[in-house]
Amino acid sequence: MTFGIRQFSRLGSSLLFRVTNRRFANPGIWTKNLRTTATITAPREGLPLSKPEMGAVDGASVLAKSLKDQGIEYVYGVVGIPIIETSFALQQAGIKFIGMRNEQAAAYAAQATGFLTRTPGVCLVVSGPGVIHAIGGLANAQSNCWPMVLIGGSCDRPQEELGAFQETKQVESTRLFTKFSARPSNVERIPMYVEKAIRMATYGRPGLIRLQFLQHKNDKLFMRSFPSYFKLLTHKPGASYLDFPGDLLNTSVPEEQVEFLPKLPPPPVSVAPQDEILKAIELLKSAKNPLVIVGKGAAYARAEQNVNELIRRTSLPFLPTAMGKGVIPDDHPNCVSSARSLALQKADVILLLGARLNWMLHFGKPPRFQPDVKIIQVDIEPEEFQQSIPTTVTLLGDVNQVTGQLVEAASQKQLVYPKDTPWWKMITEKMDLNRKTVGAMMADTSVPLNYYAALSTVQKLIPKNSIIVNEGANTMDIGRTVLLNGLPRCRLDAGTYGTMGLGLGFAIAAALNCQKEGKGQRVVCVQGDSAFGFGGMEIETCSRYKLPIISVIINNSGIYGGVDKEIWDQINEGGGSELPYRLPPNTLSPQCRYEKLAEMAGGQGFFCENIEQLQSALEKAIAETEKPTIINCMINTTAQRKQQDFDWLTRAKL
Questions:
Q1: Distance from C-alpha of 628 to C-alpha of 228, rounded to nearest angstrom
Q2: Is Magnesium one of the keywords (predicted)?
Q3: Which of 85, 267, 344, 450 is surrounded by the fewest CB atoms within 10 Å?
Q4: Which regions of 106-184 does DSSP assign to beta strands (E)?
């Protein structure tokens, strides 16, 4: 079979368009399509485009077919020089290309696809600024251990070191945030690089990929100096980066010289040693105050069946992390989220299922944990053991498989934790007290609204199987307790890296996955007004692809909180030149009409100041199945969380 990027049969019988992307070296490029052939009539400065001969394939087409062969379904990106031809080649190969408005959002969408499907999403970006913009997404994927592949165009190789257009050392730039970062040496080897990038991204703990790590000098000294880098390459899935110079993408070779590789098999799984499993069960049996923590690693591992069975058989109390929510339904009677601080502080034995003792779990240290707490940790990455505090029992292996071992051993050893213990009584009393406090705040519907009244209204009206994307400061923290999840992988938020601005990128990936599965599941993106500002223009992307995402903006006119209209007017009484000195740095424009963006893009928008308006807007948003909705919900600029026993961020004592 002969194929090439110039065969655009999917585009129709006749199409003439002018490419005006601002990143092009030559904005006056015209492309003409005549059902099966398209010609770039004014090639950019540099090497001319090579025209494939009969039986020849170009680099862009080889890349597209290699991705398709490895099961890649979605590519997100912003097109331009030198990857616009590649984007058409992807579509021709049967891959869905989603054109985004910003590279960062494209990277966020790609990694969300990786988390939701276990198949990496791919992000395709232009050279220089395009790759740099996407690095924030790489860092977030690597921190959360989600599989994605970033593909960046780069300047033609003969022009390197001459000051070429957008010339950047991109392989080097991505190394800190990937497992594998490389540049294929020729067209014939592209399939091998693609296969390795995806294998590195998905095997072990997921993550980013980087190639060309080792230099051709003094390798032994380099490894001794930086051993942690080589540990990183051994187990974790994550992110990968592949670099494609323009001349490589446009070079043609005989098709028979390209060896396409079969699809990778699923990642191998491992189980923990049986003697360690028995140690864990005996330790749990001896505990007075046991606790199970369910992390997003359990969600990624599809461990929900075994985790639910473990809790059913043992009656142990459990606490989900933010994206571990839904592995066991939040309304399960053994869920102790409403007494999180107490559960962590008083537990004497903790079983970690795919969760890490990082800042999100306060490093496992006092005063948030007992000084002598015993940790049983299940993780695919051995370097996570003994992190911050000693690990009493280390269970190395796939979370799903190891949890299955624990279920079997718990049944054999008759591990059942009674409900009439002082520990359950203590937790229940604390949960009842916290629910009473929060319930009063939910019931307070006075204007301006508070967080709890607004978010509880969202919770009551949205479909129970909704995928909830949640980001912001208080909007996200309060949302973790108010917005409930009954199914796994139905909550996406700022995660381990604490990234703001990923909301609509995540939501787009989730909506596409819902669209594919055809179950009518809805995506609800609940953001603060500051978080929405990072990627708000992606609402146009939602409209363009007919994704009925419901975007709820909890608007307090600032970062953490702004000022009301009266104070704002007082500040603005002086001249404009004085405002940089007078406007508080955390303030945003009061009552900014963000919902107008949805109307601009062809969706629907609602401005809400009370519960009745919010209820009406949510009902209309749920009824809309082809267009995005923005609900701009105003709340009190001074609204806060309920009083917490501890600050949300554990700091070093200096």
A1: 45
A2: yes
A3: 267
A4: 121-125, 148-154, 180-182
Q: Among positive and negative, which fits the CA dihedral 73, 86, 540, 494?
A: positive
pTM: 0.88
468 touches 485 (CB < 8 A): yes
Span 105-138, pLDDT tens digits: 999 999 999 999 999 999 999 999 999 999 999 9
Please check whether residue 638 is in contact with residue 478, taking contact to mean a CB–CB distance below 8 angstroms: no
- Positive or negative: CA dihedral 244, 248, 252, 254: negative
Query: What is the spatial distance between Cα 23 and Cα 39, in angstroms, rounded to a whole number?
Result: 20
Token pair belonging to 169? 């050392």
Calpha distance 122→128 (Å, rounded): 18
The string of pLDDT tens digits covering residues 475-501 is 999 999 999 999 999 999 999 999 999
Residues 6+ apart with CB under 8 A from 517: none
Beta bridge partners of 455: none
Contact 401, 256 (CB under 8 A): no
**Which amino acid, 417?**
Y
Question: 3-state class of 516 per DSSP?
Answer: helix
Structure token digits, residue 561: 């909180």
**How many Cα neighbours within 13 Å face the side chain of 559?**
10
- ∠ CA 358-361-367, nearest 5°, is 110
Q: Which amino acid is at 133?
A: H
List pLDDT tens digits, range 385-431: 999 999 999 999 999 999 999 999 999 999 999 999 999 999 999 99
Amino acid at 47: L
User: Which of 483, 450, 443 shows the shortest CA–CA distance to 561?
Assistant: 450
State the number of CA atoms in the 13 A half-sphere of 177 facing the CB. 23
CB 179 within 8 A of CB 238: yes
Instruction: Annotate 419-482 with three-state secondary structure.
Output: CCCHHHHHHHHHHHHHHHHHHHHHHCCCCCECHHHHHHHHHHHCCCCCEEEEECCHHHHHHHHH
DSSP 558: B
